[in-house]
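User: Hello, can you help with two protein structures?

Assistant: Certainly.
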Amino acid sequence: DFTSAEGVFLGGQILPGPQSMARSLRDYTARLPLVEAAPMVMSDYCGKNTTDAILSGINSAITGAVFNAVWPFCDDVGVPVRAFLTGGDADFLTAD
């Protein structure tokens, strides 16, 4: 969700969580396995096996979605912003 400095709701985004992404890859592809989506430190830009490639893709989708939303918002408001991570999947953005 995006709010003004006064707390007025400006809009938001809804996207699938990591477990939904993992299930979708298993359910809607021919042969990909179900993996337990978990935050990972990405030491490389891609996975070197199927499981790591799925996990890398899920992590990249989540971080990419956040960056693609937050940076334009920062540009629009033109002032420093604060971001708060909440929920069980916040670790996908804070894994180290």
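That covers the first. Now for the second protein you mentioned:
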Amino acid sequence: MSRFAFSDLPITKKLMWIMHGSTLLAVLLASGFFGATEAISYRQATVEQIATLADVIGTNSTAAITFDDSDLAGQVLRSLDANQEVMSSHIFLPSGELFSSYSRDGMTRSAWFSISVATRGLLGETITSGAPQQRFTGLKYVDAVQPIVFDSEVIGYLHLRTSL
């Protein structure tokens, strides 16, 4: 019965094993760091893209909110149909009341209220802090809530849910 013992190998074989082992470790560490930086970079780019989209939609919806026209706000939100990543979008008044909504799959208002407790929490955080908030839901969705500002006054909040 033969038994493999590192101490029984010639020095050249030992050096080869050490070099292969250290090279493998270096490649694994580099791959891990590369994957981590790519994931962080992807998340940041996604948040920036959503923030830009929210700014555009928020700016386009200021007239609808100012004149209390939820149909016009719905038309602005329906323009998101061109972006395949956007699953749903909602405009809330400063009080947190739903003003207008859009959903790619035709989700109703009652469905929105029943499934979005976490998103309502995100809206509450945005109302409290006054700053945009984002939340990643696993590897499926990103929810973002951003204030809609007109003449330095918050006139509403925009929620976007995009798929990853």
